[in-house]
Amino acid sequence: MGTVEKPQTPPRPRPQAEPATKTAAPPPAALDVEQGLRDAAKNVLRDAAFGKRPYLKMAFANPYNLSLLVGGLTASALTLNPFLAVATLAVEGLWLLHAPDSARLRHVLWDPRFAKLKNAMEAAERAERMKTLQPDARARVETLVARREEIRRLAAQNPSFAGDLLRNELVKTDRLVDAFLEMSLTCARYEAYLDSVDSAQLDRDRRRYDQISKTLPGDDPQAQIGQKNLAIVLKRIDKMKEIQRYLQVARGQLDLIENSFQLIADQIVTMQSPQELSGQLDELLDGVEAIRQTTRDTEQLIGALEREA
C-alpha cells in the first residue's frame, strides 16, 4: 500500500510589530499664527516702550498672554475639543476686559516693564552704534548714561517736582545723551579722516608749487599749472584747519554736557521747581543744535575735499 501523506499545516505568519506612534506635529496654520503673534508682540512692545503706553495692547501682546492663548487654541485644535477653545477665549476676554483699566496692574506689571524694555532697547542700540568708538569714548558715553539715571533717581526724590513736569524735563536728558553719542561718533569719524590726510605732504606740495610759480615766468605753462595746483593745495589746507576747529568746538561741547550733568546731579536735590532744571537743559540743547548745524556744513566741506582729492 502507498504511504498516506499527512496534510501539512501552513506556517502562521509572524505578527508584525506595530509602528511606533508618532506625535502629531502642530498644523502649519497654527505655527503661522503663533509666529505672527510673536512678531506682532515685538512691534507692540517697541511702540509701547517709545511712544504712548497702550495698556490694552500690552495686556494682549505680551509673551505670557500669547503663550497661554496660543497654547490653549493649539491644544484645542490637536484634541479636536471645541470647549477648550471656548474656555480659552472666554478667559482671554475677561483678562482684556478688566486688566488694562486696573491702575494697580499698570503700576505693578506694566510700568516697570515699559521702563526696563525701553532701557534694554536703548542699551542694545547704543552698543551697536558705539562699536566704531575707541574704548575711552565708549566709557564716556556709558558714564553719561549712568549720570542721567542718577539725575532721574534724585529728581524723583525731590518733593518739589511734580510728576508730569518732571517727566517733560527729563526727556531732555535723553535727547542730550543721544546728542552726546552722535557728536562722539562724528568726532571719531573726523579724526579718522584727518589721520588719513598726509599733512606733511600737503605742506611739501605747497612749498613746491609756490617755488615753481615764483621762479618761472608768468606766461610759462608750467608756472600756470603750478599756480592752479598751489591754489588747490592752499584750499585743502584751509579746509583741514576748519575741520580741526570744528573738532575743538565739538569736544568742548562734549565736555560741557558731561560737566553740566554732574552739576545738575549735585543741585537737583535742592532745586525748588523743574524750571531751574529746564533752563540748564535748554541751554545745552541750544548748544547741541548749533553744533549740528556746523556738522552739516563740515559734512559738505569733507565731501568737496574728497571730490577734489
Q: What would you note in describing this structure?
A:
There is one protein chain. With 309 residues, the chain is mostly helical. The chain folds into 2 domains: 28-112; 152-308. 79% of the residues lie in helices and 0% in strands. The chain has helices at residues 28-50, 55-60, 63-79, 82-98, 103-129, 135-156, 163-196, 199-215, 221-267, 274-308. The chain is elongated. The model is unreliable at 1-7, 17-23 and 107-111 (pLDDT under 50).
Any key phrases for this structure?
single chain; 309 residues; mainly alpha; 2 domains; 79% helix; elongated; disordered N terminus
Percent of sequence in beta strands: under 5%
Q: Describe the biggest sheet?
A: none
SS content category: mainly alpha
What form results from the Cα inertia axes?
Answer: elongated
Contiguous uncertain segments of 5+ residues: 1-7, 17-23, 107-111
Number of helices: 10
The ordered H/E elements are HHHHHHHHHH
Radius of gyration: 36 Å
Kindly state the percentage of residues in helix: over 70%
Number of domains: 2
